[in-house]
Design a protein that fits this description.
- The chain has about 190 residues and is α/β, with parallel strands linked by helices.
- The chain has helices at about 15-20, 40-60, 120-135, 185-190, and strands at about 5, 20, 25-30, 35, 65-70, 70-75, 90-95, 105, 110-115, 135-140, 145-155, 155-165, 175, 185.
- It has one domain (about 40-70, about 85-190): tt1808, chain A, CATH 3.90.1570.10.
- The protein has a six-stranded mixed β-sheet with strand order 5-7-9-10-11-12, sandwiched between helices.
- The mean pLDDT is about 85.
Length: about 190
């Protein structure tokens, strides 16, 4: 039986794994402090499945893998030194040597976050962490506005590649710069 999580206390990843949480809770470790993530809505899960299915089909036979709801050790530290563990909704890695069976160690190539209720704080915090870690591409999917913001890492900083919305027929096809030949129609995300 694990110990109860205390949100104001700082933990290493090893200590964090020993903590007990309620069934269905998702946590991240940000600067050593546990952060409870919002429970996803059914619409959130539909969007997640739509994107994950398109990515999985595209990546068949390739060395890249798509992962959902899996821990990412962004800065590749050893377990007792880890202070940042994020659980993006979805990520793609093309370097599977970074996977250890429990978590991904290092920056994924593509990270996709679907906004929940506490989205502004999460978006800014995760944006900064992903940028510092060297994530090549970051998608912010807004399930309320039906938009996708795409950020691409250039010279160590995220640059906005584009904002794609359901109503924009000219920009309805979303390309990925991190994954060769991958694109998805915005309507396929929000159907």
């Amino acid at each position: 039986m694990g110990k109860q999580i205390i949100q104001d206390k700082r933990y290493t990843y090893s200590e964090f794994l020993e903590m007990e949480s309620e069934e269905g809770e998702r946590w991240e470790l940000i600067d050593g402090k546990p952060v409870l993530l919002a429970r996803p809505s059914q619409r959130h899960q539909d969007i997640l499945l739509n994107i994950a299915s398109a990515l999985k089909n595209h990546l068949k036979g390739k060395t890249c893998k798509v992962r959902m709801d899996s821990d990412v050790n962004l800065f590749g530290k050893e377990d007792d030194e880890i202070r940042y563990i994020v659980a993006p909704d979805l990520y793609v890695s093309c370097d599977l040597r970074k996977d250890d069976g429990q978590k991904h160690n290092g920056a994924p190539d593509l990270v996709i976050e679907i906004l929940s209720t506490n989205y502004m704080k999460d978006r800014w915090r995760n944006y900064q962490l992903y940028e510092q870690a060297g994530v090549r591409e970051f998608w912010v999917v807004d399930q309320y506005r039906n938009t996708v913001d795409i950020f691409v890492l250039k010279d160590g900083e995220f640059k906005l590649q584009g904002v794609y919305g359901r109503e924009d027929e000219d920009t309805a096809i979303i390309p990925s710069s991190a994954l060769e030949d991958f694109e998805i129609h915005v309507n396929d995300i929000f159907e």
